[in-house]
Each structure stands twice: as C-alpha cells, then as structure tokens.
C-alpha cells in the first residue's frame, strides 16, 4: 500500500474500510515501538488476542478501539489493559484511563498469571530432574556411551 517513502494520502474513509494489510516497507522506519498513539476505531477487530501484541509496544500510551466488535467482549477493557502488563495503569484505552476497579482487576490477573507461570516452570524443572535421574539409573549417563562399550 505504501512504499518507497510515500506519505499516507488524505482520502475518504470509504476506500479504507476494507483495509486488511498496511505495508510500511521501505519507509526508513527505525521502530514501531516508538508509537505513542494508535487509533484503530471503526474497524472489524473482534478478539482481544488479535490486538494483544500491541501491549508489547513500550511507548504506546493511547489506544482507540471504539466502533469495533471487540468492545462487546466480556471484560473488554480489563482484558485489553492486561496486555500492557505493569504499564496498564499508564495506558488510555478509548480515551479513558483505567479506573481503580480496572487497575485492581488487572493487577490480580497479572499476579495470577505470574503464579501460574512460576508453578509451570517449577513443574518443568521437576520433570527434568526426574528424567535425568531415570537416565542415570538406566545407565544412559553419557548419552549412549554404554551402547558403544557393549558393541566393541
């Protein structure tokens, strides 16, 4: 759509309504993580998962999603704010900063996610130790060394 340092043309809304892809290649962009304001109003965005990666943009402070089906998702605001992790209190979603209830909900979800991830990591390490002990007991300490000795 845009290439070789072209500027976004001023056009009527209608031609952009079916926009599926924006190509900013060859525009000498240094990074998109410097974007502070992103307006995605009146599109067809339906799921939190489809825009969740925007939470990884470290400078994004304002995100507009009004006019999208995503706004009908249960707990839309808190689920979207959760995408920003610890920065969720700094982000304005649809022109509105999170209220205290939203902040508390996001903090709770983040704490639960961290606890779940820590538990999963602990379980993964426990399984690795068990597998290592099984390999040791079965004589596979050197990764097949016993096979080489037996075949000679």
Could you give a short description of this structure?
The protein is mainly alpha-helical and 152 residues long.
Topology at a glance:
Blueprint: E1 37-39, H1 48-51, E2 62-64, H2 76-82, E3 92-93, H3 100-137, H4 145-151
Parallel strand pairs: 1-2, 2-3
Helix pairs in contact: 2-3
GO cellular component, one term: cytoplasm
Coiled coil: 105-135
Keywords: Coiled coil, Leucine-rich repeat, Repeat
Report on this model:
- The chain contains four helices and three strands, in the order βαβαβαα.
- The protein has helices at 48-51, 76-82, 100-137, 145-151; strands at 37-39, 62-64, 92-93.
- The chain has a single domain (14-123), classed as Alpha-Beta Horseshoe (Leucine-rich repeat, LRR (right-handed beta-alpha superhelix)).
- With 152 residues, the chain is mainly alpha-helical.
- Helix 2 packs across helix 3.
- A three-stranded parallel beta sheet has the order 1-2-3, with helices on one face.
- The longest helix is centred in the C-terminal third of the chain and has 38 residues, at 100-137.
- Strand 2 (62-64), helix 2 (76-82) and strand 3 form a beta-alpha-beta unit.
- It starts with 36 loop residues before the first strand and ends with a helix.
- It is 37% helix and 5% strand.
- It is elongated and about 65 Å long.
- Residues 105-135 form a coiled coil.
- Keywords: Coiled coil, Leucine-rich repeat, Repeat.
- This is LRRcap domain-containing protein.
- InterPro entries: LRR_dom_sf.
